[in-house]
Amino acid sequence: METNYLLPNKYKKLGWILFILGILGGVFIYVIGFDPTEYLKMNVLSFYHDPYIGEPTFFKIIENGVLDELISIFIILGGLLVGFTKEKIEDEFIYKLRKDSLVWALIVNYSILMITILFVFDLAFFHVLMFNMFTPLLFFVIRFTTLKSKYLRNEE
Amino acid sequence: MKNRLKVQRAMHDLTQAGLAEKIGVTRQSINAIEKGKYVPSTVLALKIAKLFNESVENIFTLEDDD
Predict the structure, then answer these.
(1) Is A93 close to B26, i.e. CB distance below 8 A?
(2) Which residues on A lie below 8 Å from B44 (Cβ)?
(3) 3-state secondary structure of B35
(4) pTM assigned to the model
């Protein structure tokens, strides 16, 4: 069975580590209420920068706390690696479970997003958007992992 | 689609894991096929039939609603 877009299984463990560290870090700074832009400050290249005071600029070096960038990249890269590396044994049924989980995750994610668009407003909706950067991957990984273990049960 | 995979497996004294290993798929696949939750590809059906030395129709048969 030909399987496209999948990386070798050896990257899956790295994926789980990044994904879990990223989520724990993200939840932690969210709950504690840290301002992540205040941590790990360094000079970064900004493609487009629109400061509160002054004119927008393109391709400028600015100072920025990169903690939130790191956490976001950990979650996204980790989630992609978990979902799109081969299983130890990769076969047509696992590939189907992966695709079904993706469809399920997108439908669930956008259904929830539609509800929040209609009933959540202002700054609260900004929080929704923040979570929504990660929920499609999160729902997908949870669904895929659950389905795989579901079909391992009930032998004989 | 109905299948007699579980029967064939019992006749050859194979566990789900044993059968999965012999044809190079996951145990999830065998489990799902036996439960009728997954219709295998033609290639996989042929591999299973070949292993049991049966024709595909002896293991997999169409149902009325297929």
Answers:
(1) yes
(2) 91-92
(3) coil
(4) 0.90
